[in-house]
UniProtKB/TrEMBL annotation:
Domain ATP-grasp: 264-447
Keyword hit for Nucleotide-binding: yes
InterPro entries associated with the record: Asp_endopeptidase, ATP-grasp, ATP-grasp_RimK-type, ATP_grasp_subdomain_1, Peptidase_aspartic_dom_sf, RimK, Rimk_N, Rp_bS6_RimK/Lys_biosynth_LsyX
GO molecular-function term, one example from the UniProt record: ligase activity
Name used for this protein in its record: Probable alpha-L-glutamate ligase
Residues bound to ATP: K301, E338, F339, D347, R371, S372, N373
């Protein structure tokens, strides 16, 4: 700003090119770059000239006042907030007006829904001739949110969400049901083989390529990533997030659920009950390791096991020690876990979506088998949960950061304990056992979380 300007610690300003005639901003000399509240950020346009579209509610006291703004992207960069959290943000350049002074400034886009001010004005917007007086406010002329009354919203119009279903098994029950249900509700669902994705990692316009083509923007991604693809699948999912997609389960949460040791540590830190567990990597003191999990019987699990594979029951302490020695020879990471005998080969699978248990079934192992997995021949039946079971299932999914999870619970003599948390639970068994349309609940949850920009008034920069 070439003109001399005095600012208080809070000021009114306008962003005319975004169609925002009045924004109340906090002036922060400690922040270099300005930040603007933005929700449902959607990137689009050519690789050489990317743009971003976002929803904003400029008045914190009137959340029904919503506008959609569009602006060119000038950069993407990591920004560390005052609480120490780092976030990758889009950066736009747009014209700002305070009083009679106008200038083009850079603004990062972030969700400031919990903040009192929809905009933070950083020092790069001040200019050399600006003085900030921290004990005064509104030195420049005041504006009003009444200026938005002249902006008449367009009639609501709908558009389908575009969803990506990441799976290497498009023909299994869960994948087919999710794709069919999404399409039945009017959405576009593209089934994508995770292993065939490859990525262009670039600050302004990250891309995912698939079979020689660039994938479009997706509103939401439903990850059905198999255990063998966990690491690469998380990388692909992070790339979708970088492109602005909302992921049903975040990549870090999927990683935590797949790492049995980390999952147990996180659950333990949250005070969530589970069978006593010991962990080792080829220990020399076999007897002490087995003793940590009890006198026997105990269960030994490979850390990467799924569907009951790599899970062995040792009936006695001596048998457990022999199995530990065998695992040590394989140079494997494994858990030794207390065997909950009173569960009698049964567990409870709770399906948690968005912090609510939407369906539950009891799985009973075949006679002579302690693993109740349906893939192992277990039988399933609908069950009514106790309040304690419901509470512990929700707490476990929340601790791992999973919006969609299958939480397996055992009934011990001391109450319910969490056995495992699955980030890609199978849907066939629980839908058939309970008669509930679980896939419909998944799609409706996505609809609630991903707000459709096509229903908003759009203002083009």
């Amino acid at each position: 700003m070439s003109d001399a300007l005095e600012l208080g610690w809070e000021e009114w300003l306008a962003l005319p090119a975004l169609g925002l005639p009045a924004i109340k901003a906090k002036v922060d000399t400690g922040a270099k770059t300005s930040a603007l509240h933005a929700e449902v950020i959607e990137s689009f346009g050519d690789t050489g000239s990317p743009k971003v579209r976002f929803l904003i509610r400029p008045d914190p006291d009137h959340p029904k006042l919503e506008l959609v703004c569009t602006a060119p992207v000038v950069d993407r960069r990591d920004v560390t907030s005052s609480n120490g959290q780092t976030e990758l943000r889009y950066v736009i350049a747009t014209e700002m007006q305070i009083g009679t002074v106008r200038r083009t400034i850079e603004i990062t886009l972030t969700n400031r829904e919990t903040m009192s001010y929809r905009m933070l004005l950083g020092r790069s917007a001040f200019g050399d001739h600006t003085t900030v007086i921290p004990d005064r406010s509104f030195i420049q002329p005041k504006l009003s949110f009444d200026l938005y009354q002249s902006i008449k919203p367009l009639k609501p119009k709908t558009r389908p969400l575009r969803m990506a279903l990441l799976t290497r098994e498009p023909d299994n029950y869960s994948s087919m049901r999710l794709a069919e249900t999404g399409r039945e509700r009017g959405h576009i669902v593209d089934v994508i083989n995770t292993s065939r994705c490859y990525m262009k990692i670039e600050a302004r316009a990250p891309e995912i390529h698939y079979d020689g083509k660039t994938l479009p923007f997706y509103d939401a991604v439903i990850p059905r990533i198999g255990a063998s693809m966990t690491n690469y699948g998380m990388a692909v999912l992070r790339q979708f997030e970088a492109m602005g997609a909302w992921c049903l389960n975040p990549p870090s949460s999927i990683g935590a659920s797949r790492d049995k040791l980390l999952a147990h540590q996180l659950l333990s830190q949250a005070g969530i009950a589970m069978p006593v567990t010991a962990f080792a990597h080829s220990p020399k003191d076999t007897k002490d390791l087995v003793g940590l999990a009890g006198t026997g019987p105990v269960v030994l699990k490979l850390l990467e096991s799924t569907q009951g594979r790599g899970v062995v029951l040792a009936e006695s302490k001596k048998a457990a020690e022999s199995l530990v020695d065998a695992f040590r020879g394989l140079d494997a990471n494994f858990l030794v876990q207390e065997f909950v005998k009173e569960a009698a080969g049964a567990d409870v699978r709770c399906l948690v979506i968005g912090g609510r248990v939407v369906a539950a079934m009891k799985r009973q192992a075949q006679e002579g088998e302690f693993r109740s997995n349906l893939h192992r021949g277990g039988e399933a039946m609908a069950i009514s949960l106790t309040p304690d079971e419901r509470k512990i299932a929700v707490a476990a999914a929340k601790r791992l950061g999973l919006n969609f999870a299958g939480v397996d619970i055992l009934q011990s003599k001391n109450g319910p304990v969490v056995l495992e948390v699955n980030s890609s639970p199978g849907l066939e068994g629980i839908e058939k056992a309970t008669g509930k349309n679980v896939t419909g609940k998944v799609i409706r949850f996505i609809e609630q979380k991903v707000r459709t920009l096509g229903k908003r008034r759009e203002i083009n920069a």
